[in-house]
Amino acid sequence: MSTLQNNFLWGGAVAANQCEGAYCADGKGISSADCITAGTVDKARVYTDGIVAGENYPSHEAIDFYHRYKEDIAMFAEMGFKCFRTSISWSRIFPLGDEAEPNEKGLQFYDDLFDECLKYGIQPVVTISHYETPYGLVQKCGSWRSRKMIDCYLKFCETIFKRYQSKVKYWMTFNEINVIILHPVMAAGIRIGKDENYNQVVYQAAHNMLVASAKAVSLGHSINPDFKIGMMMLYPTFYGETCHPLDQLKCMEAIDCHYLFSDVQVRGEYSRKALSFFRRNGIHLEMATEDALALKDGTVDYIGFSYYNSNVASHQMEKDMTGGNMLNAIKNPYLKASDWGWTVDPVGLRIALNNLYDRYQLPLFIVENGLGAVDKIEADGTIQDDYRIAYLREHIKQMKLAVGEDGVELIGYTPWGCIDLVSAGTGEMKKRYGFIYVDKDNEGKGSLNRKKKASFDWYKKVIASNGEDLEEEVGLL
């Protein structure tokens, strides 16, 4: 018998702004993601006057999923996907973010996309807001700096909840909601001036998002009680560098700022520790009188999270640093790293699953996990990505241990970038995650043709066996 439940949701994950392209097609408005030039998040430019001619904006074409989704969904079905995680572009539905009526062509696109998934028995898993905000709202009210965003967001939610209530069961309110404190530009199109209090801006924006999320959960349940509406966070497993008590304290502090978000969305209130953090740092949140009730009434049904790598914390800061999923951390001498410096730590996923389940006792959903790597097309036309197979295999093994031996309740697994797409963090195409190769380079050149990698057939066997056939002999981590 399989360790995993028979209806386990195997699949893959993408985001609208990283794969759809067609950035101004069929009435779509400009989003904050459309205004980010190629390059790392810290170096890319976001223009206050929108899009500037002559610059490279990777999201504008991306992999043209907007026009090629039928081909791609067919390939996902061939792998045996049970679900497909994607997002709905807010500016495709409300081009400026606050129109009186939605854009019908945008709504129809997602009708067609979800119908195509359902034709193959693939359940859509929808992230409502995934690293993009209508640029009209960025200009008009400063994005999530303003409480005005809450009503705009809820109108968007009501529109899509009602439109797709018979097609979508699983929803997530915000992608990696805790990233607002790490990279507000990418998460919400918010630039913070040098004369501003960074913490005040990001935690106020976070509060507005948390209230919006809670109200969306309540709204969704009122429209369709069968909806499963979850939160989604970047989960950063942290280790103390040594057994020095101050390293362990630093480790605790490093994760606490992320638990702040899941605590509110699962428990319906800020923890005493979070409130103390606000006081110590002079953060004064603007809260409406009804916010507390809204947060309590709008707790989530499950926890979705991303896990790519683990991190090391130390009270001694003069250390060699390495990359991570928007977190720069101390190098871990016991672990290897990816081409982009992200530590490869499958056991860290088991720890993450246990930490989250022990803390909340809610169903968990791994909605992002994967290896960004440079893939090479061999002389015979194949792409032998055994390193990706090894990464995923070892993480699935630890996932199964968390379920089978530790008792964690896990509903699904959707590796990130199941088809190659534009990297959110670097704007690159060469940083590939997919089971499916897309012919496009960093300069935007290529045919966009799709090609199966070796991992395609491997993952197909994994799904068909419900995680039992992992082909131990393929690839070494």
Structure explained in plain terms:
The chain is of the alpha/beta class. The chain is 37% helix and 13% strand. The protein is built from 14 helices and 14 strands. It has helices spanning 16-19, 65-79, 90-93, 104-119, 135-141, 148-163, 184-188, 198-223, 245-267, 272-280, 291-297, 346-360, 386-404, 454-464; strands at residues 9-13, 83-87, 123-129, 170-174, 228-234, 237-240, 302-306, 310-313, 321-322, 329-330, 364-368, 410-413, 436-438, 450-452. Strand 9 and strand 10 (329-330) form a beta hairpin. Helix 8 crosses helix 11. GO terms for molecular function: beta-glucosidase activity. It comes from Anaerocolumna chitinilytica.
The main sheet orders its strands as 1-2-3-4-5-7-11-12
Taking the sheet with the most strands, its summary is:
8 strands, parallel, barrel
Q: What is the total tally of β strands? A: 14
CATH topology heading? TIM Barrel
CATH architecture: Alpha-Beta Barrel
Mean pLDDT: 94
Shape label:
globular
What's the SSE pattern?
EHHEHHEHHEHHEEHHHEEEEHEHEEEH
Q: Flag low-confidence runs.
A: none
Q: Helical content, roughly?
A: 25-40%
Query: What's the CATH class label?
Result: Alpha Beta
How many domains make up the 3D coordinates? 1
CATH superfamily: Glycosidases
Q: Please, how many helices?
A: 14
Distance between the amino and carboxyl termini: 27 Å
Approximate strand percentage: 5-15%
Return the structural class.
alpha/beta
Gyration radius over CA:
21 Å
Protein name: Beta-glucosidase
GO biological process, one term: carbohydrate catabolic process
InterPro entries: GH, GH_1_N_CS, Glyco_hydro_1, Glyco_hydro_1_AS
Organism: Anaerocolumna chitinilytica
